[in-house]
Please model this.
Amino acid sequence: MLTDWLNSAIRPDWPAPHGVHALFTTRVGGESDGPYAGLNLGDHVGDAPAVVAANRELIRASLPAMPVWLEQVHGVDVVDAAAVVEVPKADGAIATQSGVVCAVMTADCLPVLFARDDGSAVGAAHAGWRGLCNGVLEATVARLGEPGRLLAWLGPAIGPTAFEVGDEVRAAFMAHSPEAAAAFKPGVRDGKWWADIYLLARQRLAAAGVTRVFGGDLCTVSDAARFYSYRRDKVTGRMAALIWRD
Model:
């Protein structure tokens, strides 16, 4: 079981600095069944609490510590993971201390991992469209500081041929920046658009001064064998993007 989940985990394809480690869990492995079948790490989706706890302990065995879990609320708050005592309502975490594992959970929303190029700081952000639009990536970059020294990796999320949104979503992004128009293509129905969350994230990161951005090519909706997807299944588990430094 341990080998199953670890062998199937996605390792970011980026020039991570020495001492920085990152993983994205898939649904492979674990003890959950039914609609959560596999390595469900979300304790808020209806899965049996004891099973979720067992899944979390399973990944803990390959990490320096239990991940610092967040109660994600599609907001822009970012916490220092080393200072967390109780589960905070937040959608981003940073760490400058060694052995502290930042984590965000997703099942279509975009997970973004960050590392300073000297390995002195890492971070993770949960970017659903609301959090992305309202500035969760910018907030995480601000907490890490020195954006020109940051690397970012865009993990598996709902792809641009699967993410159908309404006029209000496009308008919200356009109100922030007209260049967001490039990330929306007309849908097959009036008032609907296909949104490219990866491009939207790249635009926001570039505007914040982060130009070394990797990943953004894996769609959660189209790969049911590896990924949970809320858009596809509604009742489903959650995966985790994890990052820490030695």
In short: Residues 2-245 form a domain with the CNF1/YfiH-like putative cysteine hydrolases fold (CATH 3.60.140.10). Helices lie at 2-8, 49-60, 129-134, 136-144, 167-176, 197-207, 230-233. DSSP finds seven helices and twelve strands in the chain. The radius of gyration is 17 Å.
